[in-house]
Amino acid sequence: MTESGEKATSGLATIIGKYLKLLIEDTRLNIAEKLTRLLSAITIFALLLITGSIAIVFISLWACYLLSEVLPQYWSFLIVAGFYIILFFSVYLLKKGLIINPIARFISKILLNPPVEQSQTNSGTNA
Which tens digit of pLDDT belongs to each residue from 59-98? Predict the structure, then answer.
């Protein structure tokens, strides 16, 4: 091999090495961004869940207090408890549509790139 061929080969190897380092760095940044978005969503959800739970406890006590003015106190607590039992079974029966599918959609939106629409790919070839 000639001297110019060796220089070209070493230059190509240097360029490929830099390219691979940039790909690794890009992958690291993408992972960091997606993990940050996922963890922040989990944190916000946990805070809203805790705050909402406390609010629901106070609203339930308020509803029991209002019902106890019309009904005996134990009936008012039973009515509120029955409402939560019915709500629990409704959520359990509809868990796929209410819980599983939205979570799967949210995680896939964060982790996967959105698909390219067919009209966008065709418009580039027609122009």
Answer: 999 999 999 999 998 899 999 999 999 999 999 999 888 8
Q: pTM score, two decimals?
A: 0.61
Q: What is the DSSP string of the chain?
A: --HHHHHHHHHHHHHHHHHHHHHHHHHHHHHHHHHHHHHHHHHHHHHHHHHHHHHHHHHHHHHHHHHHTTS-HHHHHHHHHHHHHHHHHHHHHTHIIIIIHHHHHHHHHHHSPPPPPHHHHHHHHH-
* CA-wise closest residue to 67 among 56, 58, 79: 79
CA 79 vs CA 53, 86, 95, 104: distances in Å: 19, 11, 24, 35
Can you give the three-state secondary structure of 2-14, one letter per residue? CHHHHHHHHHHHH
